[in-house]
Amino acid sequence: MEEFKKILVPTDGSEANEIVVEKGLGLARLLGARVTALFVVDTSTFKGVPPDELITTLRGYMEVKGDEVLGEIVDKGEEMGVGVDKSLTHGHPDEIIIKDSEDHDLIVIGTHGRSGISRLLMGSTAERVVRYSKCPVMVIRIKEE
Predict the structure, then answer these.
(1) pLDDT in tens, 23-71
(2) CATH number for 31
């Protein structure tokens, strides 16, 4: 049986994504695994926009927010007895997650389960990760309020 010792838990920092983090940390505790908490500053939203003061400020805000979110996951991991490494990076989320899948045994990721036009407009990071990941992927359905 395959061992899962390195689990990647990507987060967007949303309140809805907290269930994904809890499931990922809980699974890591059961398996004796280590978690990498990943926050990607999505630079694709800035593509083609000249780097002015607003863009620089927005990017800085996202980095600070990401670091805070990752710190909270580290703290939650400590409470649960799970080792957590922080990873804050820039790029397109699905591409970064897929690249990082090469160094992990499992990915625990959330999906909103959108369909129709909202899926067409927003895309599905989780779907692309499932399709192209180099390791198994556990998808957690996030219920929207």
Answers:
(1) 999 999 999 999 999 999 988 766 666 666 766 788 889 999 999 999 9
(2) 3.40.50.620
Does residue 103 form part of some domain?
yes
Question: Would 1 be classed as within a structural domain?
Answer: no
- With helix as H, strand as E and coil as C, how does 52-117 read? CHHHHHHHHHHHHHHHHHHHHHHHHHHHHCCCEEEEEEEECHHHHHHHHHHHCCEEEEEECCCCHH
User: Contacts from 122-131 at CB under 8 Å and sequence distance 24+?
Assistant: 125/93, 125/94, 125/97, 128/94, 128/98, 129/94, 129/97, 129/98, 129/101
Q: Which residues of 62-91 are buried (b: 16+ CB within 10 A; e: fewer)?
A: beeebeebbeebbebbeeeebebebbbeee
Domain that holds residue 23: 6-141
| pTM (predicted TM-score) | 0.88
Asked if residue 111 belongs to a domain, the reply is yes
Query: For the chain, what is the domain count?
Result: 1
* Residue 116 resides in a domain: yes
Distance CA 82, CA 31 (A): 10
